[in-house]
Amino acid sequence: MPGLWAAVRRVVVAEGPAVWPVVVAMVVVGGGLWAGVPSAGRGISLTAEAMGGTTLQQVRPSVSGDVDPRLGAAVDAILARRGIAVKQNKIDLFLRDVAPELRDEQRQVFQNMRSLGMSVTYRRAEVWTNYEAVQKYGLATGTFRVSMRYQISGSRLAQAATDVGYTYTVRDGRLFLVDDNDLDRAIGSGRQPWDYGPIDVVKRRNVLVVVDRGRLAYAERQADETVAMARKTRQLWKGYLQIVPMVVAMREPGVLTELPPTLRGAEPARVQPIPSPAKDGRPVGGWIVVRPESQARFDSAQLSHALMHLLPVRLGEEAPRWLAEGMAQYAESLQLVATGRGKQVAAAREDIRRRALGDLTRLPADDEFAATDSDDISWLAVEQLIKQVGLRAVTDFYQQVARRGYNRPAQERLMLEYTGLTEQKLVDALRTLAQ
Question: pTM for the complete prediction?
Answer without folding.
Answer: 0.82
